[in-house]
Amino acid sequence: QVQLEESGGGVVQPGGSLTLSCATSGFTFRTSGMHWVRQAPGKGLEWVAFIRYDGSTEHYADSVKGRFTVSRDNSKSTVYLQVSNLRPEDTAVYFCAKDSNYSPNWFDPWGQGTLVTVSS
Amino acid sequence: EIVLTQSPATLSLSPGERATLSCRASQNLRTYLAWYQQKPGQAPRLLIYDTSNRASGIPARFSGSGSGADFTLTISSLEPEDFAVYYCQQRSLWPLTFGGGTKVEIK
Hints:
The complex is a heterodimer of chains A (120) and B (107). By secondary structure, chain A is mostly beta strands. Chain A starts with a strand and ends with a strand. Chain B has no helices and eleven strands. Chain B is 0% helix and 50% strand.
């Protein structure tokens, strides 16, 4: 079955950086767009970034543009999110999600998430 | 950016009752709206896509309707496992956006 597993979260100081990873299995990764979505503690969902199946196109939320970079390695079936110049408001669980098989830009399924805490 | 407004914020109902959740968009979405369910400590799950299509494995008591800027998720008869938070999401325009969520709680 389709599996998505995020890693790389942790505690980082304001202004710091991290690279989040999402390792996948159970589907043809190289033909699937991938997304990152985050959820601040006790808050709602916020879409963060998208990368096309071949890496040729990226989209970002305005709140992270210029600070976050999404990338992928199709040989490893893994998508990455480089987060830099972190702010306290970036504290959240970061989920990766696969573009659904039904139509693009629906999220199905999701990983379990990795927590990023920005604090001094 | 398209803003999605969900109402009510909280819905207090008993098992067996009907739940009606609303999602209103700031622009015409045509039918490009989805609904997700999230339980505490879990990742969200896709329920409905393109306004009214149930995702694989989703029970028939979940249905979606609407078009343009007004959309509804209906749960015809609440089961104990349906008490959760529900989010709508649009894919009509970048950036993709979510509504603020509706919590369906046990009365």
